[in-house]
Amino acid sequence: MSVFPPSPSENDEWVSVADLMSGLMLLFLAIAVFFMIQIENTRGDLENIAVLYEELQTGLYGQLQSEFAADLESWNAEIDSMTLSVRFLEQEVLFEAGEAELNEQFTTILADFFPRYVGVPTTGTTSVRSESRATRRRIGSI
Questions:
Q1: pTM above 0.90, yes or no
Q2: What is the DSSP string of 111-124?
Q3: How far apart are alpha carbons 6 and 8 in whole angstroms?
Q4: Which of 25, 43, 107, 117 to pair with 9, CA 20 to 30 A apart?
Q5: Which are the contacts of 6, defined by CB distance < 8 A and separation ≥ 6?
Q6: How far apart are CA 101 and CA 33, in angstroms?
Q7: Would you list the domain boundaries of the chain?
């Protein structure tokens, strides 16, 4: 038994502040978890896009190789599998020495080459076109 009445504890105000801080910590933790889930989903989508891009690039490379297989050797050219660009290796065929105009032989090669090169993506195999549609659908859903 105490002679004096119980005094209010000095720690009562700190308990409510600690409760507020705990509530804020849980709020920020929930926000952090939400963003981590969103980033994980985005990373999965980006990985899918990268895989689809690689498949399409490989398909287009195969189409270019099959389209120009007979001509690449006679043109002394090569197709880069990474950029899908065609490189003509023989400089003498491109230009005459010291001239800015295309050589007649190279003009003939380009007249045969360019329409076929541009037409490869539009007249490609069904599998590459269906992969392209699937890619656009997947990319559009991101």
A1: no
A2: HHHHHHHHHHHHS-
A3: 7
A4: 25
A5: none
A6: 63
A7: 12-140
CA distance 5 to 10: 15
Q: Please give the DSSP secondary-structure letter assigned to residue 87.
A: E
Q: What is the pLDDT of residue 88?
A: 87
CA distance 84 to 54: 12
Rg (CA), the chain: 33
Highest mean pLDDT out of 9-23, 24-38, 126-140: 24-38
- Block residue for tokens 């659908």: 137
What is the pLDDT averaged over residues 78-82? 89
Residue 141 confidence (pLDDT) above 60: no
Q: How far, in Å, CA of 67 to CA of 75, rounded?
A: 14
Give me the residue label for tokens 């990373």: 43
Q: How many CB atoms lie within 10 A of CB 132?
A: 17
Tokens matching residue 54: 């690689």
Mean pLDDT of 121-134: 56
**C-beta separation of 43 from 126 below 8 A:** no
